[in-house]
Design brief:
The chain is of the alpha/beta class. The chain has a single domain (4-302), classed as Rossmann fold. The protein is built from 10 helices and 14 strands. It has helices at 13-24, 80-104, 139-155, 176-185, 204-216, 234-244, 256-263, 268-271, 279-284, 294-302, and strands spanning 4-8, 28-33, 42-48, 53-54, 64-67, 110-116, 128-129, 160-166, 168-170, 198-199, 201-203, 222-226, 232-233, 275-276. The strands form 4 sheets. Strands 4-3-2-1-5-6-8-12 form an 8-stranded mixed sheet, with helices on both faces. A two-stranded parallel ribbon has the order 7-14. Strands 9-11 form a two-stranded parallel ribbon. The longest helix is centred in the N-terminal third of the chain and has 25 residues, at 80-104. It is globular.
């Protein structure tokens, strides 16, 4: 039998592709899920975070833990109740895992947790952020700060902990790219707001390989900006999507005020600028990007 990798949020965009790559490498993959499901080649254990319950034996013999679970930031308007859900879905789940690991005296080789590029702020203009840059003080920053603080509960158990601060993941399975590509396919592609806001990005296969490297290589520890380099402006990303789809881009920018009228505070997700530098990846690891070029990355994504 291969080493066991237990994943939360395994049915999401990253989780699905990561599972495929792990199975190819002969890992045993298991999920923690709110409901029992039949998933080929994956053992599914049930958990109930509100009740503090994790199915018996779920954590037993776990070599690596990967935490991807969390309510979608851009799925619903940010009511006060939704904001609480966005935070608690990320933090309470980790704290429960830490509690059970401690109770059962289980110590995985590594714990890898997702985090967000918004750690540094929802809108930070042209400021270049490395992993040592200070956090922001808005809602999305608060989400990621609490997320990473919760991951610290596992680190305190003596488990090597890695945090991957991720921007937009290029995939047609979900996330921002299908939403941006949909109007572009019909010739309605247009930059959002000023179009000058920076977007940190990474191809789905590269972020999944980062999770695997973070698992397998003991030198990985702490937080990393898990993005390609350099980032791209919203205007350039829109242009590249239209170019890849061989569609014209002639519409004016969608004004910021219109987006705020429709989405409220949640419009910050697409209007904010975030320039991340993958300093630790570049200087402290031997990670090799499969898709370092945006145009090539988009071609591969849309070829599917």
């Amino acid at each position: 039998m291969g080493k066991k990798v237990l994943i939360t949020g395994g049915t999401g965009v990253i989780g699905k592709r990561l599972t495929e790559l792990l199975l190819e490498k002969n890992y045993d993959v298991a999920y923690l899920s709110r409901k029992k499901k039949d998933i080929k080649s994956v053992q599914v254990f049930e958990w109930d975070i509100a009740k503090g319950y994790i199915e018996e034996n779920a954590l037993e013999n776990t070599d690596f833990l990967i935490h991807l679970a969390g309510a979608g930031v851009a799925d619903e308007r940010w009511t006060e109740e939704r904001k609480k859900t966005i935070i608690s879905s990320r933090t309470d789940s980790i704290l429960l895992i830490a509690q059970k690991l401690k109770e059962k005296n289980i110590k995985p080789a590594a714990f890898i947790s997702a985090s967000g590029s918004s750690y540094y702020g929802e809108d930070t203009g042209d400021i270049r952020h490395t992993e040592s840059s200070p956090p922001g003080n808005d809602f999305l920053s608060h989400v990621t700060i609490e997320w990473e603080k919760a991951a610290g509960a596992v680190a305190k158990l003596g488990v090597r902990t890695v945090i991957l601060r991720t921007g937009i993941v290029l995939s047609m399975e979900g996330g921002a790219i299908p939403k941006m590509a949909s109007p572009a396919r019909f010739g309605f592609g247009a930059p959002l707001g000023s179009g000058k806001q920076w977007i940190p990005w990474i191809h789905i296969d590269d972020i999944c390989q980062m999770y695997i490297d973070a698992m397998e290589k003991e030198t990985w520890n702490g937080a990393y900006n898990a993005v390609a380099s350099p980032p791209v402006t919203n205007e350039e990303l829109t242009k590249q999507i239209c170019k890849t789809l061989d569609k014209p881009q002639f519409l004016p920018n969608v004004p910021a005020f219109a987006l705020r009228m429709v989405f409220g505070e949640m419009a910050n997700v697409v209007l904010g600028s975030s320039y991340l530098v993958n300093k630790r990846i570049a200087e402290e690891t031997d990670f090799q990007y499969k898709y370092p070029d945006l145009s090539e990355a988009l071609k591969e994504v849309f070829s599917k």
